[in-house]
Amino acid sequence: MSEAAASPAFRRTEPDVRRLSLIEACARVLARNGAAGASVRAIAQEAGASVGLVGHYFGGVDALVAATYEHVDRRVAEALDLAVAEAGPAPQDRLEAFVMASFAPPIADTALLATWIAFWSLVTARKDIARQHDEQYALYRARLEALLGDCGVPVSARRRHAIAVTALVDGLWLELCLSPGCFTAGEARDIARGFLASITSSGR
């Protein structure tokens, strides 16, 4: 294929590449500077782009931050889905893989934690971020409920157990990223594995 023939296809994909570069730059700025430091100028500079490009693709910094929140959450969800897919068909293995993935890269990452903290800081200040937060955690818990159901946990107990597992994972993940010297990823997995065994074996 000639260069001239390939050029139009390249130009069609270029806007998506530029949009993604702004989102990734926004995530880095949020991790480094927090939500208060995520200005249009700072993000554009990080991306090596013009300030006007942010307005062109997102209309402003608020929409860019929201798009970045969605993008980061999707990356986490993809990592969880991959872990479950690689675990095989056994329900208990799939449940464990879903939970244990939070204690290994790319989820157990200090930069990801810093970005996530910036998002959390906006939950009480912005209704759109609060809505995203609620939707994302609802999807996470729904996935957990389905995996717990596959392990024989009755319907009446799934929601309660999903909330408990989510709280356990969040707490261990936070401490593992913030203070990795306090305990190891292996210890986090052992703690989570023991809790999963207790709720799937009792069925209550």
UniProtKB/TrEMBL annotation:
Residue ranges of domain HTH tetR-type in the record: 16-76
GO molecular function list: DNA-binding transcription factor activity; transcription cis-regulatory region binding
Keywords per UniProt: DNA-binding, Repressor, Transcription, Transcription regulation
Gene3D superfamilies: Tetracycline Repressor, domain 2
Name of a matching Pfam family: TetR_C_6
Keyword Lipid metabolism among UniProt keywords: no
InterPro entries linked to this entry: BetI_C, Homeodomain-like_sf, HTH-type_TetR-like_transc_reg, HTH_TetR, Tet_transcr_reg_TetR-rel_C_sf
DNA-binding residues (ranges): 39-58
UniProt name for this protein: TetR family transcriptional regulator
Gene source species: Novosphingobium subterraneum
